[in-house]
Description:
By secondary structure, the protein is of the alpha/beta class.
Amino acid sequence: xxxxxxxxxxxxxxxxxxxxxxxxxxxxxxxxxxxxxxxxxxxxxxxxxxxxxxxxxxxxxxxxxxxxxxxxxxxxxxxxxxxxxxxxxxxxxxxxxxxxxxxxxxxxxxxxxxxxxxxxxxxxxxxxxxxxxxxxxxxxxxxxxxxxxxxxxxxxxxxxxxxxxxxxxxxxxxxxxxxxxxxxxxxxxxxxxxxxxxxxxxxxxxxxxxxxxxxxxxxxxxxxxxxxxxxxxxxxxxxxxxxxxxxxxxxxxxxxxxxxxxxxxxxxxxxxxxxxxxxxxxxxxxxxxxxxxxxxxxxxxxxxxxxxxxxxxxxxxxxxxxxxxxxxxxxxxxxxxxxxxxxxxxxxxxxxxxxxxxxxxxxxxxxxxxxxxxxxxxxxxxxxxxxxxxxxxxxxxxxxxxxxxxxxxxxxxxxxxxxxxxxxxxxxxxxxxxxxxxxxxxxxxxxxxx
Length: 450
């Protein structure tokens, strides 16, 4: 190992050791490692304090790690000084589970009934009766919009019910009316200047899988076959989706191309800023944007995604939460694991950053009201988010497909970036990429009912 790695390793090991030395001999010392914004940090620390207050003798050290999380976690794993409970990047979670670094939670499902009540797609299985954690939150993709931009264009807001979702053609038609250049012209008007666009009608990522996977499934396509060993992105239905996304930029000129939204360098403002400044009128982005929308005082609305055939949205767009096998207090760590996902103790659900994983929060009216009936959730939230997630969510590829990290870096991301540039049509790019992706595929992750 390089000297810098050794120093980092020793430093993190010292941190972990120091955390374990605090308190009286009768105290159970736990560590909880996590990433997030300052809003998330505040909510997590409040949750950990509640855990201590309700579990006599338990002390929890918060290891807030906002930067280089995967590097620092890998270093702790290598040193053998892992936290007890924490967030784990999704791809890393499967690797650590297969290496025996995470606790198999399957035996605890009967002991802790709450753990057996999660949404089926939340569970992360690495083999039969082998459960290494759950997706931390059930985040879904939505169509966010500026209410004032919609009003100024004189169009009806994006529907907030899946059964009334716009078709793709309706999305494009409305995006034309919402796209305005510096002289007030729309893309279908003579003299429109695509290099001087004041407000784009829509922004939807081509390179971020969660943004387009719902469209893919809606059009009757999928990323891979039933065995997860053959890539299907070269199918006509898949090609249509990516060509439509490319056409938003270069044919219709209603969506920004690469670099057009970046204020400086490659940094693109968050969805809350894009809508508040009316740089973009509608944005496909995750539910987690709700917290920033409210904190930024954005005049926003929430709609469901446009559909092709059946309405779908990507769900379970999150990292993993797990218990580490190196914990000296596994039972208490499992209790903390269940506690940190419970909306009764975590403000992040009511504040709008997270969506619950327990089924009852989508089925029981009192439970639904407990996290959505407040000023942080707009009136359309019930149909646009709760019902939409329950009835029309398809789990993110990251929780389903093996070897996705390598597939992304080696083939998929470069191919999608090429589509985004508009230099070649989607069909040419995907027909070249699909066989290369197939050669790297290792199947779907195990799925099991609880």
